[in-house]
Amino acid sequence: PHDQTWKQLTDHLGEWVTESKKRTTDGHVASYIPELANAPADILGICIMDASGSIAAAGDSNFRFTLQSISKVFTLILSLMDNGEAAVFSKVGMEPTGDDFNSMLKLELVEPGIPFNPLINAGAIAISSLIAGKDSTEQIARILTFFREIADNPSLEINADVYKSESDTAHRNRSLAYFLKDNGVLDCEVDDVLRTYFSHCSIEVNCTDLARMALVLAHNGVDPIRNQRLIPRRFVQIAKTFMFTCGMYNASGEFAMNVGLPAKSGVSGSILSMVPGQYGIGVVSPPLNRKGNSTAGVHLLGKLSQEFDWSLF
Ligand code: GLN
Predict the structure, then answer these.
(1) What is the pLDDT of residue 110?
(2) Atom 6 of ligand 1, nearest CA residue
(3) How far is 64 from 270, CA to CA, in rounded Å?
(4) Given ligand 1 and candidates 72, 99, 101, which is best to mutate, with the most ligand atoms within 8 Å of its CB?
(5) Domain limits at 266?
(6) Ligand 1: centre distance to CA 68 (Å)
(7) Ligand 1 atom at shortest distance from the alpha carbon of 70
(8) Which of 137, 168, 201 is the last residue of a domain?
(9) In the prediction, which pLDDT does 191 show?
(10) Which single residue of 98, 176, 251, 264 could bond 291 by disulfide (Cβ 3.0 to 4.6 Å)?
(11) Pair 192, 213 in one domain
């Protein structure tokens, strides 16, 4: 039996998607990873999943895309599960930067030369190096197994074309990794950690997968559909706190003000968000604003939050 909110959601989601889709013309599809530039600009899809697994979906909800930076939330969780809090926070800090996601600025500022937080590229590269495994091949296999478990989808795979495209053009991420290596943050080789990092960024999903993954976070690490704990509660608390303060990069404050929910964006135009205790949400629309977040996706989440008073405050 579904409540009034769910009925309103399923009744109106289509119109809200149509309205927000007009915002796709305000943004530009990411092109610094050449393969991502092939994504169509006139796409907006959303999937919202409740604790019973019921789905409210609208727009291009079957469109497939790569996780990109959304993967950083789940590699952070896996690295916490592998190493514990103390070890992880000896390699990354806990503060937002106010800079672009791939910024080289401030890398020296947190003692002793560690990245500000695990969701900017530098921090996520440091986190990738902490995933347990004897080499990057084993780390990548463990990441894929973990992501498939959280998404409850054994068919998740790495998109090889996106991986290659990013790897071939990642001059900036390569510089960040060399910088971390020089600061003593990485215990492995730069090429190995980048293989792991590009691989998890290139895992391909759709909005339903995103909503399913978000649902586990919304329920503090318990998958409410299989009624099974997948992640310790404390690590979900850490992940959601970072999503709230740093998940939308240097637009995290604005997003917190206008939407008020934990969220993480990726340059594929994807956003994973949630209504804590209730819904998992996956959104995709490739055109991005100046800060690297989906223009139509952010607009749609703002509309939903206002409509249902979803802000945490
Ligand atoms: N793979 C992308 C990169 O490292 C992820 C960035 C993003 O999604 N914002 O540049």
Answers:
(1) 65
(2) 69
(3) 10
(4) 101
(5) 4-65+205-308
(6) 5
(7) 8
(8) 201
(9) 97
(10) 251
(11) no
293 has binding-site annotation: no
What's the CA gap between 118 and 299, in Å, rounded? 26
Q: Could you report the per-residue pLDDT of 134-154, keeping only the tens digit for each?
A: 999 999 999 999 999 999 999
In angstroms, the CA 209 to CA 211 distance is 6
Are the beta carbons of 109 and 119 closer than 8 angstroms?
no
What's the CA-to-centroid distance between 9 and ligand 1, angstroms? 31
In the chain, the number of structural domains is: 2
Last residue of some domain: 201, 231, 255? 201
Identify the residues whose C-beta falls under 6 Å from ligand 1. 68-69, 101-102, 121, 166, 173, 201, 266-267, 292
163 labeled part of a ligand binding site:
no
Q: 122 C-alpha vs ligand 1 centroid, how far in Å?
A: 10
Distance CA 172, CA 125 (A): 12
For residue 33, the ligand 1 atom closest to its alpha carbon is: 10
Residue 142 to residues 111, 134, 171, Cα–Cα distance (Å)? 30, 11, 26
313 falls within a domain: no
Ligand 1 atom with the smallest distance to the CA of 266 is 8
- Spatial separation of the C-alpha atoms in residues 106 and 117, rounded to whole Å: 11
Q: Name residues of the chain where pLDDT drops below 50.
A: none
**Residue 208 CB coordination number (10 Å):** 19
Q: Examine the domain organization and report whether 86 and 187 are in the same domain.
A: yes
Active site positions, annotated: 69, 72, 197, 249, 267
**Which pLDDT value is given to residue 109?**
62
Residue 197 assigned as binding residue: yes
The type of residue at 4 is Q
Would you state the structure tokens that stand for residue 220, as one six-digit string? 């503090």
